[in-house]
Amino acid sequence: MAIETSCDETAVAILEDGRKIRSNIVYSQVAIHRPYGGVVPELASRRHVEVILPTVEEALKTAKVKLHQIDVFAVTQGPGLVGSLLVGICVAKAFSYSLKKPLVAVNHLEGHLMAIFLEKEIDFPFIGMVISGGHTNLYLVEDFLKFKGLGQTLDDAAGEAFDKVARLLNLPYPGGISIEALAKEGNANAISFPRPMLTKGEYNVSFSGLKTAVATYLKRHPEALIQDVAASFQEAIVDVLTQKAIQAALDLNVSRLVIAGGVAANGRLRHKMKMAADAHSLKIYFPRPELCTDNAAMIAVAGYNHFKNRDVASLDLDAFSRTLSHDYLTS
């Protein structure tokens, strides 16, 4: 059983043999946070407290197993909102202690990178990119437990930029979904927004300037068609992410790419990355959309790898909001 409460989804999953999904239950808080245009940490943690045990019960019911039949408990330790993380950690600790079963701690970003193994087995090494509301990170993944950080966002994550620009356009939260839908009606070449940090060999990204460019454009052009703004903004982000991932694969002579995280569900991103990968004879993999967004099945498959490596956690396990080592999984 894995528990994921790093942000605003309360998720519980049960896997068999580390791959077969018996249940993968996600309780979304989108309706709670939509009036604020983003996640309110205190509201998120309170809601986790309210729904975590019913979510566990639903996961057990769907998997047709009893709690005492669970062999290992995995839980997201971070990065994320500490108040939210602690809800999942406390529940996982309680189950582990009371049932005398092993406890495994999982890095949230590692979970995203491992989500692809819920659908298919792929060879190592591969370039992994995690693109979500809080993270935009690029890795060389050499094995199940061996990651090397190549680059990350220096300010806003891609999903955060989507949310902020959506607010500028008076679109509902979550911004990524709203902008993608509106962009389908617009012209992606209507406005030439900047593509930041495209220097060769530079794997870090920065999107705060792009957000500012959109805000400035809207002030100067109040008559602008918002569908063109949405399409042009989305195209700028997609271009940057695509070039970074492809360039890393070419520079490191790695023929496989895995693109994960909530923003990896974006249809335009998938299309352009697939075209670019094909042009360079690279293989590219995306988890299906429901495995891109936060879920506990991805935490379970990562936890399974840790357990096989005898990497278990103690009951003094604590949450962390971010990791600092650029060589592992950075936030």
Kindly describe this structure.
By secondary structure, this protein is α/β, with parallel strands linked by helices. The protein folds into 2 domains: 2-112 and 292-308, ATPase, nucleotide binding domain (Nucleotidyltransferase, domain 5, 2-Layer Sandwich); 122-286, ATPase, nucleotide binding domain (Nucleotidyltransferase, domain 5, 2-Layer Sandwich), CATH 3.30.420. It is 42% helix and 18% strand. It has helices spanning 30-33, 41-63, 82-99, 108-114, 158-168, 175-183, 208-220, 226-251, 267-279, 289-292, 297-308; strands at residues 2-4, 9-16, 20-28, 73-78, 103-107, 126-131, 136-143, 146-152, 256-260, 283-285. It has a 5-stranded mixed β-sheet, with helices on both faces. Strands 8-7-6-9-10 form a 5-stranded mixed β-sheet, sandwiched between helices. The chain is globular.
| Sequence of strands across the biggest β-sheet | 3-2-1-4-5
> How many helical elements?
11
CATH homologous superfamily identity of the largest domain: ATPase, nucleotide binding domain
CATH architecture designation of the largest domain:
2-Layer Sandwich
Q: Helical amount among residues, as a percent range?
A: 40-55%
What letter string, H or E per element, gives the SSE order?
EEEHHEHEHEEEHHHHEHEHH
Q: Report how far apart the termini are.
A: 25 Å
Query: How many domains make up the coordinates?
Result: 2
Structural class: alpha/beta
Q: Count of DSSP E strands?
A: 10
Work out the strand percent: 15-25%
Radius of gyration over C-alpha positions, nearest whole angstrom: 20 Å
Q: Examine the coordinates and then state which fold CATH places here, giving the name of the CATH topology of the largest domain.
A: Nucleotidyltransferase, domain 5
Please describe the biggest sheet, giving its number of strands, its sense, and whether it closes into a barrel: 5 strands, mixed
Shape: globular
Q: Give the low-pLDDT segments.
A: none
Give the rounded overall mean pLDDT: 95
